Amino acid sequence: HALPYLAPAVPLGLANYIFDLENIESAHAAGDEYPTRKVMLANGLASMLGCLMGNPFPVTVYVGHPGWKAMGASIGYTLASGVTMFIVPLFGLGAFMLAIIPMTAIVPILVFIGVVTANQVVRETPKVEVPVIFICLFPWIANWALTMMNSVMSAAGTSAAKIGTDVLHSKGIYYEGLMHLGNGAPLASMLWGCIAIFAILNKPLRGAVAAAGGALLALFGVIHAPVVGFAEGSSLMFVTAYLMMGGMFVVKHVLDISVNPPLPVGEGD
């Protein structure tokens, strides 16, 4: 009975895994070191416990540690947040809270957290690696645009399939491109970042491995596809592209060896 639900569950689990690692690293950069294994175990066990109790939402380490820290939040804030998130749904107070607290009072806090986090990322990243940050944003921007477009079309009672991608394309909306680039954004952004950083640091073998991983994920529809499954049609372009990129990295590695052959063992001592 669980097999049909694995398609959305596996990518969501992988995305949460990546989010956890990213936010643990963000806290580390802000001067607060947390044991990765313990955090991941606590997160996973909490998600499993919630599932057993009928909670459909997985638990993840929340983003914005530098921002919360800059606002003076500590363990008391975490405790208060947990208690609030327990009481509000328990007594059905969600609609009441949204009625008395306008969204305009909440959004500025999230904007501040985003700005502080982005500032930390740029500040803590070596200058030569800064372009990687913006390369990683491309899948997320496409994901945001795709979500907005689908929401607008849904509100209008239609969809891209009904309108037709050719009609959208004639109006300058490249829906298929957004669909492929936006789906699987958490994994795709990490993958693109790996490929970019290995190219910048001249580590072609690692770049080839990252590209091969991208080809494998694209082949099974984990990234660059609307549903998980064996890639077909336009999704196969990405499999080919990653394989070509991996081949270029391998060629670069071979050329590097031919120009600067490795020293025999003991000769460099």
Automatic annotation (TrEMBL):
Keywords: Membrane, Transmembrane, Transmembrane helix
Record's signal peptide: none
Superkingdom of origin organism: Bacteria
Membrane spanning stretches: 41-63, 70-88, 94-116, 128-146, 184-201, 208-227, 233-251
PANTHER family: SLC26A_SULP TRANSPORTER DOMAIN-CONTAINING PROTEIN (PTHR31610:SF0), SLR0360 PROTEIN (PTHR31610)
Descriptive protein name: Xanthine permease
